[in-house]
Xyloglucan endotransglucosylase/hydrolase
Amino acid sequence: MASLEATHRGGGGGVAAFILLLTTLSAAGIAAGNFNNEIGFNWGQDHGKILENGQLLTLSLDRASGSGFRSTNQYMYGKIDMKIKLVPGNSAGTVTTYYLSSLGSTHDEIDFEFLGNLSGDPYVLHTNVFTQGKGGREQQFYLWFDPTKDFHTYSILWNPQSIIFSVDGTPIRQFKNMEASGIPFPKDQPMWMYSSLWDAEDWATRGGLVKTDWSQAPFIASYRNYSAQACVYGSASSTSSCTQNPSANPWLSQSLDISGQQRIQWVQKNYMIYNYCTDAKRFPQGFPPECSLN
Ligand SMILES: *[C@@H]1O[C@H](CO)[C@@H](O)[C@H](O)[C@H]1NC(C)=O
Ligand SMILES: *[C@@H]1O[C@H](CO)[C@@H](O)[C@H](O)[C@H]1NC(C)=O
């Protein structure tokens, strides 16, 4: 599944990526959501639009193409928020992605993927964490609202202690830094923020059972309020002066408090529909080591 995802949504841009990597950028900062300044389309450019003076972005998908964009900056740790309104109606077969990723075969990646469904049937929120090129850490959830009616905020907190996925401020998943137990954690490779809308009818809807209904095209996902409280990756000294300054960047030391722990338990008890750490069939030789630690 992971490799299929990568080929469909990556959409090239590798060369531009390396050029950006060489650019020195200012270190700390809050990006306050003007898409004209913060992102560039890296795939299906003619199917992406920036409207309302940079306040609104839409991606559309039809038989010819989907579309995707990427942050201008690379980040080394950050709290990244985006408001998204997902494809309404019969969205079966469509996948909207929103993730952080570095490049290459040993890349790190933190994924939100929204798997569309038939009208009236719930979206599936699919999450994954790749460290040094290894993923396979899927957890899936239903949402407690209709994500196609309004914009909702999807957040990734990535700091040296943990990765926390949140929906409207409610944490749904945590991946702790377990390097002390030999499990790699993303901390050496800066990541871009990416998002895309693409057709995944071959796997997204119950293994390809339900096909995309192209008579409903174009499918449209909308975005607002991109915010990156983050260390922008630049020269070694500017990057480390940001990542080593938690008093100026409180999100760097943020963790789940008691109420956050209670809310994550509430979500996992009521809305989690798949957890690789309980899929005994998949791991007959025993669960991955982080399952007993996280
Ligand atoms: C989100 O962006 C809109 C403009 O698109 C702005 O009016 C609004 O205040 C922003 N909301 C938040 C919570 O930042
Ligand atoms: C779609 O809805 C069905 C029926 O409620 C559900 O079993 C399935 O998990 C949903 N999601 C996808 C991606 O098929």
Remarks:
- Helices lie at 2-10, 14-22, 35-38, 236-243, 258-270.
